Amino acid sequence: MGRTLARLTLTLLVVSALAAPAAAGPRLHRPAARATERARIVDFSFRPKRIEVDRRTRVRWVNAGGVAHTVTSASGLWDSGSIAPGETFGRVFRQAGTFRFRCSIHPSMTGRVVVT
Predict the structure, then answer these.
(1) Interatomic CA distance for residues 85 and 67, integer angstroms
(2) Which domains are seen in the chain, by residue range?
(3) Dist. CA 55–CA 97, nearest whole Å
């Protein structure tokens, strides 16, 4: 009887350990974006030039022009790389603040995202 009880106890311990939810640890993923704000790149300008969004909003730029452009942070936080006509680039803004950007191919093209 002693061995049977010991095996039963061990089996119950293993089963409950496997069935227990994992301990809360550091988050390995970020919360999803709340919403998406769309913007366009037309000819040689960002439209709108000033975008105002809430925190955790994704801003998605679509290149609606005929040449490649970039959406590049003025402070080096992000760089879209070259966005060909018809392609898009998106970024989720998680912190409040004003984020200036430009096209690194055409530096006179500038804009800003204001996150509240």
Answers:
(1) 6
(2) 35-115 (2.60.40.420)
(3) 9
